[in-house]
């Protein structure tokens, strides 16, 4: 992928719930190789935007393009996941009775695909290599055989990020990844998210912890009432009068 190419491009997006317009007219781009923070006060429309990308919420108008071509709006949730969109929700959901390694192996099987592709993947010697790579990437190699149920909260979150990485998403979306984490876990997560940068991947992070966003994000979009009121570096967002007024200056 060309550096800076568009992983996801949203145009003219309009979302309403009954008479309430949550997103009036949104344009948004996330690029390969970047960690993009999406911030804004409660009710700004962050979750709604992610729900549209994953196919959970249907907009009234607009297009959502993955990789500059496919319009995701014509697809259902499993098809969108298969096309390369991975999302991690706030609460970790790992298979507690399975080991860390087994959780990663299982993640590959959760990706919907044909039986034939399934059998091929299990016979593929590279499968084990991929598990080892991801274990390394999330920093859990030493705990590969530990049951996921006894991991600390932060370790479960990293495992879940690893489960998404197994599927090689083009767009990886993380919903408040450091909520409820200790300071040390937050630091480890910042390292991990920074390492997620790849020419084949865009990372989108919704987060309330501003210091964390500043540490990890190459670019931030500030949403307010469904409108992007700022896009650029987090350090500049802090100085922006409008951003301060609606958000940071509370
Ligand atoms: P954020 O994630 O930035 O806190 P949300 O995307 O959750 O904001 O919400 C944006 C706005 O849309 C809020 O005013 C919220 O109350 C409203 N909203 C979200 N989902 C629904 C829904 N299913 N029905 C009605 N209103 C909703």
Quick recap:
InterPro entries: AAA+_ATPase (IPR003593), ABC_AA/LPS_Transport (IPR051120), ABC_transporter-like_ATP-bd (IPR003439), ABC_transptr_urea_ATP-bd_UrtD (IPR017781), P-loop_NTPase (IPR027417). The protein has 250 residues and is of the alpha/beta class.
Can you describe this structure?
The protein is 38% helix and 25% strand. The protein has 250 residues and is α/β, with parallel strands linked by helices. Helix 5 packs antiparallel against helix 6. The radius of gyration is 18 Å and the shape is globular. The relative contact order is 0.19. Adenosine-5'-diphosphate (ADP) binds at residues 17, 20, 22, 40, 42-48. It comes from Thetidibacter halocola. Residues 8-250 form the ABC transporter domain. InterPro entries: AAA+_ATPase (IPR003593), ABC_AA/LPS_Transport (IPR051120), ABC_transporter-like_ATP-bd (IPR003439), ABC_transptr_urea_ATP-bd_UrtD (IPR017781), P-loop_NTPase (IPR027417). Keywords: ATP-binding, Nucleotide-binding, Transport.
Count helical runs. Answer: 10
Distinct small-molecule ligands in the complex: adenosine-5'-diphosphate
Beta percentage is: 25-35%
- Structural classification: alpha/beta
> What is the CATH topology descriptor?
Rossmann fold
- Gyration radius, rounded: 18 Å
List how many beta strands DSSP finds: 10
- CATH hierarchy class name: Alpha Beta
Unreliable stretches covering 5 or more consecutive residues: none
Q: What is the count of structural domains? A: 1
Cα-to-Cα separation, first versus last residue: 40 Å
